[in-house]
Write a structure and sequence with these properties.
A 6-stranded mixed beta sheet has the order 5-1-2-3-4-6, with no helix packed on it. By secondary structure, it is an alpha+beta fold.
């Protein structure tokens, strides 16, 4: 395959050596996506060894699965990347990619109703732009009109920046870096979704009940809980686990929001 052309012993060794660092980075990004929803300071985030190992293993398996699927459908992938998959199929692929990117980027801040509306409007514009050659004329079928428009369109020049990166890194490492970048966005989104959907939390009862938002090693992050509003205050209580026991119990008090 073209992107495997740059794969050699040095590239393989570099990939294996950086796997733990990538796993740590993605774990931290996932915890960051969670912490940002509760205003937890970034300095307190401390990925644990078990989470890092699980993330590294999962990302490795995921990358192998992506490459395996790519190898199985190499011919179709190359045809699609060159615009030869079909005038309608290629545009549907463009719309799916635009939708996926919009959802990924929107997940970085948990999309509000207005953001969802903006994404919908942008996708409508993308759909109209993709099929505009078939809408402005009426002669022939939709496929024929799109095929004629594609034939009349000039081939765009290759990107100098992407070409330079491929030459310096090699096609394989460039592909891996791109996959890790996209997985990093997914990891942040997953943390954000977890913060907005978790219902069960550990609760410390007292005159003012407090909920455990996160635990990083021997550090516990708590916040005052308003059960009626299913919300927590932005003031955090940071407790170091020591000889004094914390009497906690599980309660379904979420999903939680922050009172500003």
């Amino acid at each position: 395959m073209p992107f495997l052309a740059g794969l050699n012993a040095a590239s393989t060794a570099l990939l294996v050596a950086t796997a733990p660092a990538v796993g740590y980075l993605l774990t931290w990004v996932h915890l960051l996506g969670y912490a940002n929803q509760f205003d937890i300071p970034h300095d307190l985030i401390a990925p644990q060894l078990g989470d890092v190992l699980a993330t590294t293993f999962g990302v490795g398996i995921g990358i192998l699965m992506i490459f395996s699927v790519t190898l199985m459908f190499e011919t179709r992938v190359l045809r699609w990347s060159r615009g030869n998959f079909g005038p309608i199929e290629g545009r549907i692929g463009l719309i799916l990619i635009a939708t996926a990117l919009a959802l990924l980027l929107a997940g970085l801040s948990w999309p509000s109703g207005q953001q969802v509306l903006v994404i919908g409007v942008l996708l409508v514009i993308v759909v109209i732009g993709a099929f505009w050659p078939a809408l402005r004329t009426r002669d022939g079928t939709v496929r024929d009109r799109l095929r004629r428009a594609d034939a009349a369109r000039r081939e765009p020049p290759p990107s100098p920046m992407v070409t330079e990166l491929q030459n310096r890194l090699g096609a394989f490492l460039f592909t891996v870096a791109l996959v890790v970048f996209l997985v990093g966005i997914l990891a942040y989104d997953a943390g954000s979704v977890e913060a907005h959907t978790t219902k069960d939390f550990l609760v410390l009862d007292g005159s003012t009940p407090e909920v455990v938002l996160a635990t990083y090693g021997d550090t516990v992050i708590l916040a005052s809980l308003d059960r009626s509003k299913r919300a927590v205050t932005p003031e955090l209580v940071i407790v170091k686990i020591g000889t004094t026991p914390l009497r906690l119990h599980w309660m379904s008090v979420g999903p939680l929001t922050v009172i500003h």
